[in-house]
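Q: Hi! First time doing this. I have a protein sequence and I read that you can turn it into a structure. Is that right? Here it is:
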Amino acid sequence: MTDSQGNGQGTWLGFSLKGQRYAVPLASVREVIRPGDITPVPGGPADVLGIVNLRGQIVPVLDGRRRFGLDGHVEPGAEDTHRVIVFDDSGSIVGMLIDVIGDMLQFDAVDVDLPPPGRADRRDDPVTGVITRDDGFIALIDVARLCRS
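A: Yes, that's right. Below is the predicted 3D structure, encoded as structure tokens:
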């Protein structure tokens, strides 16, 4: 884990996918937008929904559920809470469709535990650690791994 990704320094933005909670460093978030019109890209990777035009810039949009290996079925009416988190990873702009935006988080480095067994073995796994809260776990995400930069 790098200092900015896993030690709890700074503010983190929480979000949910299929009821599971995650957080990314706020410094990596460019903006949060409504999904709007996502144009599919034929032949793209399975976890890429397509692209959006964000004020003249073409931005690929990942399917957060697929990227994290979760069921893609969305309950009727749940689309109203969906958002696209737009990340700026060292100048590379990538969006990710998520189910629900969560709270801003701050925590101490001592609160961060290692990822669950087996996750750390995958080189492309974006989960770098977890924090425990009274109501469950929050997985901490490395944006560079998430966006596959």
